[in-house]
Amino acid sequence: MDMSRILQLQLAPGVTDLAWGHPDLTLLPLDAIQSATASALTRYGGAMLTYGIDRGIGPLRDLVAEQIGHSEGVAPLPSEIMLSAGNSQALAQVAMLYAQPNDVVFVENPTYHLALRILRDLPLHLHAIGCDQDGLDVAELDTAINMHSAAGRRIAFLYTIPTYQNPTGATLSIERREALLKLQHETDLRIVEDDVYRELWFDTKPLPSLWTTFPRGSVIRLGSFSKSLAPGLRTGYITADAAIIDRLSGCGLLDSGGGMAHFPSFILAELLTSGAYADIVSEYRQRYARRRDALEAGLAPLRARGFQWASPRGGYFLWMKLPPHMRANDALTLIRAQHIDALPATLFSSRPLGYEAIRMAFSLYDEQTLHHAGTTIAAALT
């Protein structure tokens, strides 16, 4: 089978490619999804194959709301949730409806590189705000808001990944969450929260989402099942106040095409109802935690040589800062000579970071492969 005509991911033979934040095909729950599909077709029949409601099917919306209430203590009302085709589609739709040409959009530096591509498709002014292992630099954001406001520029929103951020793995600290809450109250800043990695926690449960803890109407939270289940289902959700959901669900895109991810939403509803989803996520957490540990164990000798990283508490990625004398491109040249690949920090940055780093994904390979990759990288860089 010619997979190049089917899959986005194309792996070069003999290369351990840590550049890709993709799931391991062997981990994907084929049997559970096949069973849920058959059950859903029996239950709903042809309704799965026609146009759907603009907010997404009610059964899945209700189940996701119930799950959010159980895990975060605050459940969205029926008027405060809609389904999406994943976070990329949701971000593009939010930007289309809530940003005008030349508006300012704040992004983290570094941040998810493909989100930058989505936002750059619109004529927006992206202003990068520093991000470290405690998350977004709220003091820098405050200064930037004041600067743009004084210049008469319209600020559309802040795009942030406060939980297990891509690429750094950072989680916004409690102190900075409190500072951001205060700043939002003072400036009425709209926040778009990318919450795609929330379910993939390893050692302790994550902090509550910004949507849960900030005032209603201030946060548009984008959630997804791409990482916690399977990206091919292209199914996610948006939680926001009722007025925002009304606007998003009432746009021409959904009026024309019906609800997003209509067919796979029924499959997801079956997986949530049966309890299979909870079992799948639990297995993912354990497997990805072991993969993180394997990669870190291999890389461990580099710590004594000035390489720095914080152990990811969730998500897919390890962000390794390089010693001051080493450039990311030079490090990658050495690594690639050993048939291993990763990504440079510059790909995730819209302005200089002030340091060099590389991102490595531990989602795609088993523990043995990742440990070997880590030891090979450590040998190549010493």
What does this structure look like?
The chain has helices spanning about 30-45, 60-70, 85-100, 115-120, 140-150, 175-185, 210-215, 240-250, 250-255, 260-275, 275-300, 330-335, 365-380; strands at about 15, 80-85, 105-110, 125-130, 135, 155-160, 190-195, 220-225, 235-240, 315-320, 340, 345, 355-360. With about 375 residues, it is an alpha/beta fold. The protein has an eight-stranded mixed β-sheet with strand order 2-9-8-7-6-3-4-5, sandwiched between helices. The chain has a three-stranded antiparallel β-sheet with strand order 10-13-12, covered by helices on one side. Strands 1-11 form a two-stranded parallel ribbon. Helix 1 crosses helix 10 (about 260-275), helix 5 (about 140-150) runs parallel beside helix 6 (about 175-185) and helix 11 (about 275-300) packs parallel to helix 13 (about 365-380).
